[in-house]
Specification:
- This protein folds into 2 domains: 3-11 and 246-360, Aspartate Aminotransferase, domain 1 (Alpha-Beta Complex); 15-243, Aspartate Aminotransferase, domain 2 (3-Layer(aba) Sandwich).
- The chain has a 7-stranded mixed β-sheet with strand order 2-8-7-6-5-3-4, sandwiched between helices. The protein has a 3-stranded antiparallel β-sheet with strand order 9-10-12.
- It is an alpha/beta fold.
- The chain is built from 12 helices and 12 strands.
- The protein is globular.
C-alpha cells in the first residue's frame, strides 16, 4: 500500500465531505438557480456551505464559488482596477502567469525577490508598493516550501498606497489565521479534505471587480455558470471540519513535524524553519536526484515541487528564487502530511527514502 505524503498537491477526501455530497449527486439533482421548490432546496444547500466556509474567513465580506483557486486568482487579478501590480517571485503559477499576462497587456508589474529563507524583505516591499499600484498579490503559505509571508504588514502597505491586497490562502485556509486586512482571498476545497473542482474567492464588502466571464449573472454577476450543489456541500463540510478539528489537526501536524526533522536529519531544510506551516517539509540532500528517487520509491507518494508544474522538467522556480542551484533544486523533495497521516507511515516512508538516498549521497 502506498504511503501518501503529498498533502500540498491534494488532501484525502474527508468521509464527512463525501457523505454530504452523495444525496446531492444521487437524489437532489435540481439546478440551484431554478425557481421551483426542488431548485430552492438545492440552493439552500449551497448557502449552508457558503456560510460554513465564511466562518474561517475575515468578517465583512462575501464568498463567490469558483471552479478552483486558479479561477479565483484570475478573477481577482484580471478584474482588479487598472494600475500597477506587485507580487512575489515564489508565488504559484496561477498568480505569476496571470500577472505576467497583465504586464504584456500594458500594466506595470513588479515581482519582488525573496531571501534564502523564502521570506520577502518588508523594506524592499515598501519601496515597490507605492501610489500607482492597484493590486498587491501575495501567498499566505507557500505551496512548495511552506514559508509564511508577513501578510498583515503587506496588506497595510498596500492600503497606504491605495491598492487592494489579494491573498492566495490555498495552503493556509483553516490552518493559518488569515489577516483581516486582506481585500480578496482565494481558497480551494481539495486542499482541506474537500472535493476537487470547487474553490472560492472572498471579497471584502465594497470591493468591486470587473467580470472576466459573462453569462447568466450567477454569483453576484462575477462568476456566471451553474453551480454544483454537491461540490459546494463537500466544500462546506470540509470547512466545518477544519474549524471543529483545528486543535487536534494542529497537534498532530506539529508532532509529525518534530518526528520528521529527526527522521530526515541528514537532509537540509529548504526555507525558513520558524516562519512556516509545519505540515510542509521541503528537503534537499547532496548527490540525490529527486526524479530518480521518486521513481525508485514507488511505495511513497511525495513530490518534487508544485504538482501543477511537475511535468515541465525545469527546476522549481521557488527553489531557484531562494538561491538554490539547479543541482540542489533537482535534489529536493517535498513531503506533506496532515490529518490522516500516522507516525508509523512517516517512519516507514523515511526508511524507504533514506535507504534509497544513501545509495547516491556522499
Amino acid at each position: 500500500m502506498t504511503i501518501y505524503l503529498d498533502y500540498q498537491a491534494t488532501t484525502p477526501l474527508a468521509p464527512e465531505a463525501f457523505d454530504a455530497m452523495v444525496p446531492l449527486l444521487r437524489d437532489q439533482f435540481a439546478n440551484p438557480h431554478s425557481a421551483h421548490r426542488l431548485g430552492r432546496v438545492a440552493a439552500a444547500q449551497v448557502e449552508v456551505a457558503r456560510a460554513e466556509i465564511l466562518k474561517l474567513l475575515p468578517q465583512g465580506g462575501r464568498l463567490l464559488f469558483t471552479s478552483g483557486a486558479t479561477e479565483a486568482l484570475n478573477m481577482a487579478i484580471q478584474g482588479a482596477p487598472s494600475g500597477g501590480i506587485v507580487t512575489v517571485a515564489t508565488e504559484h503559477a496561477a498568480v505569476l502567469d496571470t500577472v505576467e499576462a497583465q504586464g504584456r497587456a500594458g500594466r506595470d508589474i513588479a515581482i519582488l525577490p525573496v531571501g534564502s529563507d523564502g521570506l520577502l524583505d518588508i523594506d524592499q516591499a515598501a519601496k515597490a508598493i507605492r501610489p500607482g499600484v492597484a493590486l498587491v498579490a501575495v501567498m499566505l503559505v507557500n505551496n512548495e516550501i511552506g514559508v509564511v509571508q508577513p501578510i498583515a504588514e503587506l496588506a497595510e502597505l498596500a492600503h497606504r498606497a491605495g491598492a487592494l491586497f489579494l491573498c492566495d490562502a490555498v495552503q493556509g485556509y483553516g490552518r493559518v489565521p488569515i489577516p483581516p486586512l486582506c481585500d480578496m482571498v482565494a481558497i480551494s476545497a481539495h486542499k482541506i479534505h474537500g472535493p476537487k473542482g470547487v474553490g472560492a474567492l472572498w471579497l471584502r464588502d465594497g470591493v468591486n471587480l470587473t467580470p472576466v466571464m459573462h453569462g447568466g449573472g450567477q454569483e453576484g454577476g462575477l462568476r456566471s455558470g451553474t453551480l454544483s450543489p454537491a461540490l459546494c456541500a463537500g466544500f462546506g463540510a470540509a470547512a466545518r471540519l477544519m474549524r471543529e478539528r483545528a486543535g487536534t489537526d494542529r497537534v498532530l501536524v506539529e508532532s509529525l513535524w518534530t518526528a520528521a526533522r529527526d527522521l530526515f536529519s541528514q537532509w537540509t531544510l529548504n526555507g525558513s524553519e520558524n516562519h512556516r506551516y509545519p505540515g510542509n517539509l521541503n528537503l534537499r540532500r547532496a548527490g540525490v536526484d529527486g526524479a530518480r528517487l521518486l521513481s525508485e520509491c514507488r511505495d511513497v507518494a511525495f513530490s518534487l515541487g508544485s504538482a501543477c508544474a511537475s511535468g515541465s522538467g525545469r527546476p522549481s522556480h521557488v527553489l531557484r528564487a531562494i538561491g538554490l542551484s539547479d543541482a540542489e533544486a533537482r535534489g529536493s523533495v517535498r513531503i506533506g502530511f496532515g490529518r490522516y497521516t500516522t507516525l508509523a507511515e512517516l517512519e516507514d516512508a523515511a526508511r524507504i527514502l533514506n535507504g534509497a538516498a544513501q545509495i547516491w549521497a556522499p
